[in-house]
Amino acid sequence: MTFQLERRVVVITGATGGLGQALVAAFLKTGAVVVALGRDQVKLAHLADVSQYRLYYAQLDFSDASAIQQTLKRIERRLGPIAVFVNNAGIGYFDTALSLTAAQQQAMIQLNEASLMTFCQQVGRLMVPRQAGMIVNVASQAGKIATPKASVYAASKAAVIAYSNALRLELASAHIHILTVNPGPIATPFLTQADPTGHYAQAVAKFALTPTQLANEIVHAVVTQQRELNRPRFMNLAALGYQLAPRLADWLAQQPVFNRK
Ligand SMILES: NC(=O)c1ccc[n+]([C@@H]2O[C@H](COP(=O)([O-])OP(=O)(O)OC[C@H]3O[C@@H](n4cnc5c(N)ncnc54)[C@H](OP(=O)(O)O)[C@@H]3O)[C@@H](O)[C@H]2O)c1
User: Name one GO molecular function term (predicted).
Assistant: First the structure.
C-alpha cells in the first residue's frame, strides 16, 4: 500500500535548515501542500519567496506548547487535515559531557526531545479521530551509536528513537504510521554549528550524505510507508554489531570512521 501525497498537507519543522529546505523542495515536487515551520520569520519568508511552488509557512516558538497547538489548528482550519508531519528541527553541540554548558545541554534536550514530543502529541491528537496520518521523526545514527563529544546529542536522539518506537505501537490501531529517520552525517550547516572549528565537517566530508538525496529517500519512505530509514547503510550495520558485541563496539566507536569529532 502506498501513501498518496498529491494535494495532501505536509508540515515540516526546521524547514529553514539544510535538510529541511531539501525536504520542502522534495515534498513540493510530489504535489503536496507544504507548510514550513520555523522560529525565524525572515528566513521563512525568504524560503517562500525563492520557492518554485507555492509554500505556506508559520513562525512559532517551539518550546511553547500552546503556540504549537494553535499553529497546528490554524493550519488545519486554513488548509485541511495534516496528512504528514515531519519533525526535522534539531540542534547539536559537540563537546565532552563535562564541558557542555548548561544552555547547550538544555537547548538540545528542549528542541530534539521535548519539542518533538509535544509536536507528536498535538498532531497525534488531531490525526487519531480521522484514523489516518503519518509522523516522520528525524533522529540520527548517533542515537544508535554514541561517540565521544556527542553524549547529550546522542542521548536526545536515542530518546527520539525509543519514543517513536512506543508511539508507533500506540497509534497503529488508529492507522497512524510512524517513520524514524536515522541519518549519519549530512552536509548541512549543522556540522559547523555542532563543531565551529570545522574539524568535524572536514572529517566526515568524504561520506556525508547530501540533503537532497536524503530528502528524496525520506519522501520515498513516506510513500512506501517504511518503518525506519537508516543511511548510510554501513553505519546501520555497525549499529547492529554494537548490540551484539558491545566491547568490540566501544573499540570501533573510538576508531576514526565513527569518532570524527
Ligand atoms: N547534519 C547532520 O550531520 C545530521 C546527522 C544526523 C541527524 N541530523 C538531524 O537532521 C535534522 C536536520 O538537521 P540539519 O542537518 O538540516 O541542520 P541545520 O541545517 O542546522 O538545520 C536545523 C534546523 O533546526 C532549526 N532550529 C534550530 N534551533 C531551533 C529552535 N530552538 N527552535 C526552532 N527551530 C530550531 C533551524 O532553524 P534556524 O534556521 O532558524 O536556525 C534549522 O531550520 C536535525 O534533527 C538533526 O539533528 C543531522
Answer: oxidoreductase activity
